[in-house]
Amino acid sequence: LHHPPSHCFDNSVESIKADLTEKLFSMRAKFPEVATLNDYYLALSYVVRDRVLHRWIHSAHTYFQQASRTVVYLSAEYLMGPQLGNNILNLGIRKQVEQAVAEMGLSLEDLLEQEEEPGLGNGGLGRLAACYLDSLATLQIPAFGYGIRYEFGIFDQQIKDGWQVEVTDRWLRLGNPWEVPHPERRYEVRFGGHTEAGYDAQGRYRVRWVPERSVMGTPFDTPVLGYGVGNAIILRLWQAEARESFDFQAFNLGNYYKAVDDKVMSENITKVLYPNDEPEAGRRLRLEQQYFFVACSLADMLRIFFQRDTDLDRLPDKFVVQLNDTHPAVAVAEMMRLLIDDNGLEWDRAWKITTGVFAYTNHTLLPEALETWNVDLFGKVLPRHLEIIYEINHRFLMEVNRFFPGDAGRLSRMSLFSEAGEKRVRMANLACVGSRAINGVAALHTDLLKQTVLKDFHELWPEKFSNKTNGVTPRRFMALANPGLADLITQSIGATWLRDMDRLKGLEPFARDNAFRDQWAEVKHQCKVRLAAMIRKKTGMAVDPDTLFDIQVKRIHEYKRQHLNVLNIITHYRRLKQGLDMDAPARTFIFGGKAAPGYVLAKLMIRLITGVADVVNHDPDINGRIKVVFYPDFNVKNAQHIYPAADLSEQISTAGKEASGTGNMKFALNGALTIGTLDGANVEICQAVGPENFFLFGLTADQVAATRQAGYRPCDVYDGNEELRAAMGMISGGLFSGGDPGMFAPLIDSLLNEDRFMVLADYAAYVQCQEQVGRAFLKPDHWHAMSILNVARMGMFSSDRSIAEYCRDIWHVEPVPVVVPD
Ligand code: 26Y
């Protein structure tokens, strides 16, 4: 085995400057006088990338030698956020880079702003995957993240006349310096066709899949650095390409356009990320995407396994594969196919290996969000896999029947196929049966999983279940997003907290320290000034950093209840108009988030927010006591400006609906106080920071279920509450829709007739709780003390803690330290 380059990088200011000029020349073919800001961004990125790759090469070399168990994280989404700043932070070269670019007449901040983030995810699930890669690297765990290199990620959001408009996300337009393509390491992925059964030369029963078409998957590698360690890991994203750029046979037959057509069809597979909450859009292509990246990833894993081993029974000792929700669950069938059809194993042996390798994380309780596939469609795309799933199901249901004899209801609930209406494959059931561990993402979520959607599986295999409460990386969401706060914390308790978040506890005594509280307040104020400038730039609106910044940023969804927030704003507005509540502090209500393009009510909620903003912001009677802002195009990059500037974090989902939430953690770690329901991880956050430092309101999950059971009638709530009637009347009267009373009718009707998410039931409690928030904000000393205590007690919400628990309880993997010469 050869040793990797022991070449060392000189991180002095002089050397970084020299490298930058060299990269401008070698990678951009420019000299300084003609270079654009983007050329400089790219050149600096290449300077940083060399140093990142250096760590990756040493890590790969070390992992290869040690061959200890490796984590494979399979996720259809990764929301990585901008890379340059994070890599500079993790390399520990911020000061030198800042000075180097300054001496060349540039500002690091401007260069960082150039980067277009890869928006390869919808929201929480994709961002969680990115935080977990950061923590895997930092905890020195050998790991691969595998996913899809979408050419178009989540759409860019613009606001036109108050409505959301979707614009294609062309994130690759100016080049992506962070990835390294490996066309030499591509795999063929087959689709469609039929199967043929027969006996091989040894007389063994074998099935042959005769596919109808195939595409190639090419990997693009992005290294992810650990913090404070030499380790790096790889995010490997697959891009679909045609097998041959020209199908020569078709070409010879004169069918040139068919050949080009096939190429286009193949490349469609990784063309676009699908939004969640999108009814039925592009289902076939989505199934193809899922199988495509799973097939490439498992083939790659086996290739790496066979580099050092020959005995597939040892696969579970060498790899554990975590399924990030059911999107990659077809991996269970693909693993069986690889073992049986391609490697000649018997079923039982293959099943033992398969169920020794996989583990499954569930991220939702909403029954309509559980993935299922029409059996006919599935069979057309993956005929062999459908057969395998039938066989898994047959054997599984026999086992269920041994444990619970004659329980027909249970058999039909646990079957991998639902037979009510059209026959469908249930991916959550497949994931459960194929995995040796199953987890939810917050304590309440895991409890509810066991009681509801996965109840039968829990009764069969209670030992497979555990909770792994989500976490977020303090590197990106504190050190990078909020350097002022991070520096203040480091000055007070030392620097170790960034890798050991329990150290934040050391901040508790400072909550009583007046001088410290003033510094804390000053940092927050600076963050608000910065956000106000961003708001001005993006929307043209002036907001006052001395007002209470009350922020709700997340995907727009009925269960997240942005409309509950709006109802409170309208109520507050009406009171002010009546001369009431005049002692309440002035507030800036900030919203951000994307609605799925086909989710009509969610898009209407955005229109309602912008409609209310239009009226309230321009009402002379209000005189700035309320401002409402919709911050367009919420993404990771914007989020890094937004979380640090919040006084109040809105976490107001209907109890029992938000699996965990992770924005709630990012806010609280930046010193925002939370107004929230007992939902998802809010329950644990409230417990950790203490209920006296948390604004709790609303029905509990049990009460929500009981209220529903008892025949909840939203119109009764409406009839019984004068302020609620007035607020809804202002909406339906057309005040926020330029006099059009019809515009918001669908929203109002859904609240009055069904109110699936109990907005009206929680309205009064929410309004009252918001009054309490207002009163608390008027006592700044106490407010800032609560803010400090929140940060001091939030240590457990580091993704390092989450990953350490996965390592200990599910993956059984150990750290492998990497030594990098430098
Ligand atoms: C298109 C499709 C099948 C699909 C794609 C993405 C379906 C769902 C999703 C994304 C789901 C998601 O983001 N779930 C969130 O996961 C977070 C991380 O665990 C949780 O904190 C959050 O509560 C949950 O809504």
Automatic annotation (TrEMBL):
A biological process from GO: glycogen catabolic process
Role this protein plays: Phosphorylase is an important allosteric enzyme in carbohydrate metabolism. Enzymes from different sources differ in their regulatory mechanisms and in their natural substrates. However, all known phosphorylases share catalytic and structural properties.
Keyword match Transferase: yes
Modified residues (N6-(pyridoxal phosphate)lysine): 666
Requisite cofactors: pyridoxal 5'-phosphate
The protein's name in its UniProt record: Alpha-1,4 glucan phosphorylase
Annotated organism of origin: Desulfosudis oleivorans (strain DSM 6200 / JCM 39069 / Hxd3)
Taxonomy, superkingdom: Bacteria
Pfam families in the cross-refs: Phosphorylase
EC number(s) stated in the UniProt entry for this protein: 2.4.1.1
Keywords: Carbohydrate metabolism, Glycogen metabolism, Glycosyltransferase, Pyridoxal phosphate, Transferase
